[in-house]
Each structure stands twice: as C-alpha cells, then as structure tokens.
Amino acid sequence: MSHIREPRRIPPPLRLGIFIAEKVTGKRMEPARILSWHPKAAVSSGVLEALVSHKEKGISKRLLQLVRMQVSVMVNCSFCIDMNGKEFEKQGITTEEVEALQGRRKLEEVPSFSRRERVALQYTRELTSTPAVGNGTTIRRMKRHFDEKQFVVIVSTIAQVNYWARLIKGLGVPPAGFRPDCSL
C-alpha cells in the first residue's frame, strides 16, 4: 500500500491519460493516480515518460532495458524493478546478467555483456550514485562507443528512470505485478 491514497476525484484530462497508461501496460498505474493530487506534477511526469526512448537507431532495446534495470536496482525501487524487468526473457537478459546488475558479479565477469553494454552500465552506475560522478575515463569510453545523439538518449534514460524511481519510492508505491519474481 502506498503512503497516501489516490484522490477520490481525478480531473477528466488526467483520467484519460491514466486510462491510456493502464490500457498500454495492462496494470493499474498507481503512481499516475496518486500524482493526480497535483495535476502539474501528473502532466509533467506524463510528458517526461512520453519522451523516453525505448528504441533508438544504433542502440538496442536490450541496452536501454539494461540501463533502466541498473537504475531501478541501484535505487532499490521494487515497482521499477517489477516494471522494467517485465521483458528480461524477450531481450535475452540472463540470470548471470541480472546478478551483475544487482552487484553480485562484476560487469567484466559476464561475457554476454557487449563492450557497449558494459560502458553504458558503468556510466549508469556513476550517474545514479550519490553524489553523481562523471568519471573522465568512462565518459571517454562512452564517446568512443556512442555518437552524440546516442549519448543523450542513454543519459536521458538514466535521468528519467532515476526521477521515476525516486518519486515512486517517495510515494511508497508497491510493485504492480508485472513479474511474479520482482524481489530486491
């Protein structure tokens, strides 16, 4: 159960957005419902979500999925782990790779990660840590593996998932049931 309940009356434009989100996900989207207490927060969060890349030329869906999951695990957001982990199998993410995202294995010890995935995950870890770090070596590696647009897509994905994870943790929203095994 979340820290606060959703409002009894949700403004019609927000109800439409929630209806669409729930239709797309097939789940009750409690974060959107709770954000209805403050329509500006609900609308701005919806716009942010609409702008995130789930596919981009030159970046695999798998890489973006790994980045989203790395943030979700680091911030310890069970709702985010549940939602972002729903397509592991479809993206070919292995148990060994999940263990690396959880910090139980080093990224370098997992041969199935590509070089690009390793550097993107390292940068994700640096930007998600507190305080956020911009290691010059990692940035140079990112620039070797990704062009400017891809760099922006990866960094904005990291920032977007951090936003949602911290918002959802702050509201105390539990997992929505995308995966039966979404334990931390």
Automatic annotation (TrEMBL):
Top-level division of the source organism's lineage: Bacteria
InterPro entries given in the database record: AhpD-like (IPR029032), CMD-like (IPR003779)
Pfam family, one: CMD
Carboxymuconolactone decarboxylase-like domain: residues covered: 48-102
Signal peptide segment: none
Gene3D superfamilies referenced in this protein's UniProt entry, alphabetically: AhpD-like
GO molecular function, one term: peroxiredoxin activity
Designated name of the protein: Carboxymuconolactone decarboxylase family protein
Organism expressing this protein natively: Anaerotalea alkaliphila
